[in-house]
Specification:
Structural class: alpha/beta
CATH topology of the largest domain: Aspartate Aminotransferase, domain 2
Bound molecules: pyridoxal-5'-phosphate
Strand order of the largest sheet: 2-9-8-7-6-3-4-5
CATH class of the largest domain: Alpha Beta
Order of helices and strands: HEHHEHEHEEHEHEEEHHHEEHEEEH
Strand content: 5-15%
CATH superfamily of the largest domain: Type I PLP-dependent aspartate aminotransferase-like (Major domain)
Radius of gyration: 21 Å
Length: 395
Amino acid sequence: MTAFARRAERIQPSAIREFLALAGDPGITSFAGGYPDPTLFPMGELHKIYDDLLTPDNASALQYTASDGLPELRAQVAARLTADGMPSTADDVLITQGGQQGLDLTAKLFVDAGDVIVTERPTFLGALIAFNPCEPRYVSVPMDEEGMDVDALEQVLRTTERVKLIYTVPDFQNPTGRTLGLARRRRLVELAEEFDVVILEDTPYRELRYEGERVPSVKSLDTSGRVVHLGSFSKILAPGLRLGWVLAAPEVLEKLSLLKLAADTQNGTLNMRAAAAYLAGFDIESHIASMLPTYRSKRDLMLRTVAEHFPDGITWTQAQGGLFTWVTFPERLDVAAFQRDLLIPRAGVIVVPGAPFFAERPEAHHARMSFSGVPDDRLVSGVRAMGGLLREALS
Ligand SMILES: Cc1ncc(COP(=O)(O)O)c(C=O)c1O
């Protein structure tokens, strides 16, 4: 087929898709997926809500509705954002198909072919997949335990033309689990002002904090409307609802809303009505609080077991929240090859090799490991088996 548009060159199968298919195999211990724990979904409450919605009195739940999202849900999201230091009303919020659609729409709005998107190094692979059809160039900025190195960012902004977007996942980043410190958030906003660049802040893990204090969002530090803030119900309610939001300045939101209309008309009315009913009838804050001990204990187990069983010369991040730790191996270890030749055939374990998380100059000696989806006994036996094979591979 030769008739594809030029952007189709950038639409490639995800390197991780083929082995993620393995994740459904009961014989496989998967540290690869970033799925929330399904036992934590508020199943009973949602069952009752959907039951009530699917009655003749509620036929409007199956009808078309406003493209920007159900007004009631927009207001509820705005109230939660206001409580989190981002004063807003329903008019400031667009409901999207998960955070992922916010990434797609924002790139479409700001990025022409050849424009530069600055990312963290590494960054969320799904964002690159969303951005790629806009044919951007990428420059990635190194991170340390406090997130993006803002001095390095300044250097990039001073020396790079056509930077349009700075993409950051400031809270418990996917894939590293790292959180951007407050002073760096302030500096990030200052730099974006100075160089007239838009910041795209993506926060699906923000509310999954297991220790320490919440850090003000980048959006809350924004005084000129240059931060586009994305959030999602995926990790705090359920990803299958496909509900997320954008908070942005009115002129930005209006255009995003028109792009959304072009893309899919609206989110499913039924799911928006269900989420609105959930937020009105139940206490989502206590639901979130009730999930934290489970994830905290899984994270603790993962970090403890890795420390016990991985050989020397390997480091990993101490995520204070979210679902991931990022493991760095000696440079000579190509994780994709190690996984293909040893980890899958000998231990039935999968991780996500790190290379696809780099927007440019990929590094092969990292892996993202998720602690959310594996029962405790499998977590321990999987990490132990991986440790043994690492010793073999590195000896
Ligand atoms: C950093 C980040 N952004 C966005 C998303 C998209 O999630 P959703 O579309 O389910 O909200 C994810 C999902 O894993 C993510 O990790």
